[in-house]
Write a structure and sequence with these properties.
Elements: E1 12-16, H1 26-35, E2 40-44, H2 45-48, H3 56-64, E3 68-74, H4 82-91, E4 109-115, H5 133-136, H6 138-146, E5 150-151, E6 155-157, H7 165-183
Parallel strand pairs: 1-2, 1-3, 3-4, 4-5, 4-6
The structure holds flavin mononucleotide.
Length: 192
C-alpha cells in the first residue's frame, strides 16, 4: 500500500559491507540485484575503506543526499561486520546525526539487509540462538531511533550456506522488489 505522505521517487542508498566479497554467494547476488534497480545508489564499504579510514564528510554527504539507507551485510557474531561498526562510530557524529543541531538523518528510513548462516528456525525464543534476529539487532534499531530515523523490518536471507543457486536467485529477485518498493515509497510489507 502506498503511504500517502510519501512521494514516489525516494532516493535509496545501499551500503554494502562484506569483508570477503569474492567468497560471498548471497550478498554478491543481492548486490548485483541492487545494482539493477533504477534509482538505487550502491556503495561497497570494504572496497572504499580497506584500511578502515572512513572519509566521514564523504559518507555524511552521500547519506544526506538519500531518503532511505539500506545497510546490506552478512550477520557476523549476531551483529555486523566490523567496518559497519566503525562506520557508525565515525559517521554518526554529534551535531550531525544526534544531539544539538544533529538533525541530518531525521525522517529518513533505515533498513538492514542481512544474510545469516543460521536457518530461520534456529532463531527465536527456545531456539539454538535464543533470540530473534530483530532482537539481536536492537543496538542498531536504537541507533536509528536516536537519530530520528524510521527503522524498517530487516530484509533477511537465512540458512545461507544451504541455499541453492536457484534459491539465491529468488532471494535476489525479492530484494530487488523490496528496493524498488522503498524507492516508490511503499510502507512496510503488511504494516505501516
Ligand atoms: C566471522 C563470522 C561470524 C559469523 N557469525 C554468524 C552469526 O552470528 N550468525 C549466523 O547465523 N551466521 C554467522 N556467520 C555466517 C555468515 O552470516 C554467512 O556465512 C553469510 O551470511 C553468508 O553470506 P555470503 O554468501 O554473502 O557470504 C558468520 C560468519 C563469519 C565468517
Amino acid at each position: 500500500m502506498m503511504n500517502d505522505d510519501r512521494a514516489k521517487g525516494m532516493r535509496v542508498l545501499v551500503l554494502h559491507a562484506h569483508p570477503a566479497p569474492r567468497r560471498s554467494r548471497v550478498n554478491a547476488a543481492l548486490l548485483a540485484a541492487a545494482r539493477g534497480v533504477e534509482g538505487v545508489t550502491v556503495r561497497e564499504l570494504y572496497e572504499e575503506y580497506p584500511d578502515f579510514f572512513i572519509d566521514v564528510k564523504a559518507e555524511q554527504e552521500v547519506v544526506a543526499a538519500h531518503d532511505v539507507v539500506v545497510m546490506q551485510h552478512p550477520f557476523y557474531w549476531y551483529s555486523t561486520p566490523s567496518l559497519v561498526k566503525e562506520w557508525f562510530d565515525e559517521v554518526l557524529t554529534s551535531g550531525w546525526a544526534y544531539g544539538e543541531g544533529g538533525t541530518a538523518l531525521r525522517g529518513k528510513r533505515w533498513m538492514h539487509a542481512v544474510s545469516t548462516g543460521g536457518a530461520a528456525e534456529s532463531y527465536g525464543p527456545g531456539s539454538e540462538h535464543g533470540f530473534t534476529v530483530r532482537q539481536l539487532m536492537a543496538p542498531l534499531e536504537a541507533t536509528a531511533r536516536l537519530c530520528g530515523m524510521e527503522y524498517l523490518e530487516p530484509f533477511l536471507v537465512q540458512g545461507a550456506g544451504r541455499l541453492s543457486g536457484a534459491e539465491i536467485g529468488e532471494w535476489a529477485g525479492r530484494y530487488a522488489a523490496r528496493l524498488a518498493g522503498l524507492r516508490d515509497g511503499d510502507g512496510e510489507p503488511g504494516g505501516a
